[in-house]
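Tutorial, part two.
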Amino acid sequence: MNKMEIVVDKTMEEAYQTYSLLNEEVARWQNERGSYWTEELNPAETAPYYPLVDFPERVIIELWKRLNRVIGVLVPESVLRGTWSEFIAGKPVADPELVSCLQITVSGIAHLFNASGPDLDKYEGTGCPICGESAALSLLTPPYGKRRLHCTLCRHEWSMTSVGCIRCGSGDASEQNYLTSGEFPGIEVVACEACGQYFKELDLRLLSAATDYIWEDVRTLPLNYAAEQWLAEHAKVYGKVQ
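Running the prediction step on this input gives:
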């Protein structure tokens, strides 16, 4: 193992430790405050039932401040409110620590809302019926590889047809390109020529039952870079992807 690999491994280990601490704090908050906030839920009549833009600012700030304290980041509440407004408006947040805690905050709250959501067994769209976020992870479940989509925001899962792009819905198998790496067995990125987007697919028949899908998405970022490069080169050479 060379020096660069050692540094990368150490960085990922430290990142995972921080990620675990933050999720432990989210779990404590859910146990302490979850019942209070679920009583205030006001779901929409149709999916998505709890869209991100409708999350109460008070609950965001409450949990976000707790997570910031875990990693020793003290930020004025006015800054948090301004950053939240930028986040839901789709604007980039410059501070990586701040946005990391915010993303885990949103996920923890959305997961709480998900647990209180309606029965959605028959839903088959590509956008999450709970929070409205576009699906980014496809799961192939044992024993036969039945496909489910997993929302990386609220962690809701729902069934989908076993073929096609989860981004644009193209069912043409010839337009789907599977990029793999021996470093990440059981995980591949599907690059779609039809829409020029990509998504990850996790084969749960090859992964541990205790797999944390969100962390797997983070630690396999090299696959994202490979997909972006492949799509860019494909567009340049063949002019097929916009």
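Residues 3-38 form the longest helix (36 residues). In part three we will examine how such features are distributed along the chain.
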